[in-house]
Amino acid sequence: MSSKSIQAPGAVVMIRPHRFHPNPETASDNAFQRKDSDGPTREIARAAYNEVTEAAAKLEREGVRVHVFDDLGEKETPDSVFPNNWFSTHSGGHIAIYPMFNPSRRRERRYDVIEMLKSEYRVQDVIDYSCLEYDNLFLEGTGAMVLDHSARVAYTARSNRADPIPLERFCTHFNFEPMAFDTADANGNSIYHTNVMMCIATDFALVGFDIITDPARREEIRERIADEGRTVIPLSNHQIDEFAGNAIELATPDKRILALSSRAAASLTQEQKQIIERSAKIVELSVPTIELAGGSVRCMLAGIHLAKRY
């Protein structure tokens, strides 16, 4: 089986933080985040730095191309470890830059990352939606949207961080069909980012269906994914809480892998793992400190769907 897949990028961008801590500004609508009662500490920052370093090295050993950028914390960007929210890349040489809900997260945008992509990969254009922040319209990249690159569907949980206006603009520019839906966890909270409850891979999809509130929409999404020939793997609310939905399929020269956290992998059943491993090797990354901020492995990896320069 070929490892190549339009769904699975072979390269990623990661940001290694030097002053990481859970961001109090984002806690109001992120139920996955743990309260940072003591504020920033050297121990938390050092642990997060080490987790990114070790995760990047493990992915490289598997054959993924990893571009690591350091965030020295000069702009007070505690969530910079999650770059997939402020930019995305697309086949054909396209890059999108997104409007961010919280002001501290807007400081994460780094044009040295964009310049690296232009120099290392074939980039035709960069579409910048960040000006929509002045209109209080937000769409936080592939956190807010889970993209099916083959079927051209943008699955999107409605939230403060996923407004329908920028979603429509993105889908028009990048030729995706928007499929938005409402969510509620066990406490009635909306899911802040779609990518904590859904992962679309080449041959399977992990989805927290119970969180989708409209039964008709739930079944429509299930059928849409299955119609693409994927095996649908339902995730329980507990598994969603353990970040099992926050995974990403990546391509290496000889295989595909599913990158997810050790905590997420531990929550999967043996049957679920067997389905995944028919087409992708499970690669566990230990990121418990970073998960305190309410995101996990998928949030840490900005996939590169661009052709390399030679």
Folded structure, characterized:
The chain has 310 residues and is α/β, with parallel strands linked by helices. The radius of gyration is 18 Å and the shape is globular. The strands form five sheets. It has a three-stranded mixed beta sheet with strand order 2-1-15. The model has no long low-confidence stretch (mean pLDDT 94). The longest helix is centred in the first third of the chain and has 21 residues, at 42-62. The protein has helices spanning 42-62, 103-106, 111-120, 141-144, 164-174, 215-227, 237-241, 262-267, 270-277, 288-291, 297-300, and strands at 11-17, 65-71, 87-90, 94-97, 125-128, 145-148, 153-157, 177-181, 198-200, 204-207, 231-234, 248-251, 256-261, 281-285, 302-303. The protein has a single domain (11-303), classed as L-arginine/glycine Amidinotransferase, Chain A, CATH 3.75.10. This is Amidinotransferase.
What would the keywords be for this entry?
single chain; 310 residues; 22% strand; alpha/beta; 11 helices
Number of helices: 11
- CATH architecture classification name: 5-stranded Propeller
Radius of gyration: 18 Å
Tell me the name of the CATH homologous superfamily. Answer: L-arginine/glycine Amidinotransferase, Chain A
Count of discrete structural domains: 1
Q: What's the total count of β strands? A: 15
The class by helix and strand makeup works out as: alpha/beta
SSE order, one letter for each helix or strand: EHEEEHHEHEEHEEEHEHEEHHEHHE
Q: Please give the largest β-sheet.
A: 3 strands, mixed
Average residue-wise pLDDT: 94
The coarse overall form would be globular
Briefly note the CATH topology name.
Answer: L-arginine/glycine Amidinotransferase, Chain A
Low-confidence stretches: none
CATH class: Alpha Beta
Distance between the termini: 25 Å
Q: Name the helicity range.
A: 25-40%
Strand order, largest beta sheet: 2-1-15
Strand content: 15-25%
